[in-house]
Amino acid sequence: MNPHILNNRLKELRARNNLTQAQLAEAVGVTRKTINTVENRVFIPSTVLALKLAKALDVSVEELFSLEEE
Amino acid sequence: MDEVSKLIGQRNTMLFWVAISFAVWQGGQLADEIVHLRGWGTEMSNLVIPFAVLIGALGWVAAMIMMLNYAGKLGRSRKQAVIQDEAYGQDQAKAFRIGYITLIAVISGLMAMDLMIDFTASIAIRILLIVGISVPILVFASINRADAEEAA
C-alpha cells in the first residue's frame, strides 16, 4: 500500500490565476472532469500532466504538489 | 455546452445503449433457451420473449449506428486527445477490473449451480457473454456520468 497522500494546491493556484476549471483544462489539453478529479484528489496525474499544470499556473511542480505521509 | 462536453455526453448515451440493448437482445435469447429447455413455454412467454429479442436487436442496430456516428465525429474533432485523456484511461481500467471480477464471480456461481441444476453450455456461454460485454461498458458509462455531474 502507498503510505503517501498526494496533496495539491491546484484549486488555490487556479483561483489566483483567475482560471476556471474549463480554462485550465483547455490550456493543458484534458477534460474539465480531469481537473476536477485532480483538485479533489480522486485522480493522481502523470508526471507529464503535473508538469503541464505547473507550467500553465506558472509555478514549480513542488509548489503545486506535495507528499503527505499518512 | 462545449464540444468536449457534447462528445462525452454522446459517448455516455451511446455506451448505455450498447450495453442495455445487448443485454436485452441476448437476455431474450437466453430466456428463450431456458424456457425451451425446461418446457416452461406459455402463450405469454411465446409473445414476450420474441418481442424482447426484437427490441433488443433493433436497439443494438441503433447503438451500432450511434457508435459509427460518434466515431466519425471523434475522428473529425481536434479534441480527440482531450476526450481520451488520463482520467479516461483510468476509468477504462477501473471498468475492465470490475467487469473481470464480476465475470469471475459469475463463472464461480455457474460452476456451483451446475452441481444443482442442469443447463447447457450454450446457456452458460450466453450468460458470460452478457456479463462480459455489458458490465464493463455500464460501469464505465456510470463512472463517467457521475463524474461529469460532479464536475458540472
Explain how this protein is built.
The complex is a heterodimer of chains A (70) and B (152). Chain A is 53% helix and 14% strand. Chain A is of the alpha+beta class. Chain A has a single domain (4-64), classed as 434 Repressor (Amino-terminal Domain), CATH 1.10.260.40. Chain A has a two-stranded antiparallel sheet. In chain A, α2 (21-28) packs across α3 (32-39). Chain A starts with a strand and ends with a strand. The relative contact order of chain A is 0.27. Chain B is an all-alpha fold and 152 residues long. Chain B has one domain. Chain B is built from 5 helices and no strands. In chain B, α1 (3-38) runs antiparallel to α2 and α1 packs antiparallel against α5. The longest helix of chain B is centred in the N-terminal third of the chain and has 36 residues, at 3-38. Chain B starts with a helix and ends with a helix. The chains are: A alpha+beta (70), B mainly alpha (152). The interface between A and B is medium-sized, with 15 and 17 residues.
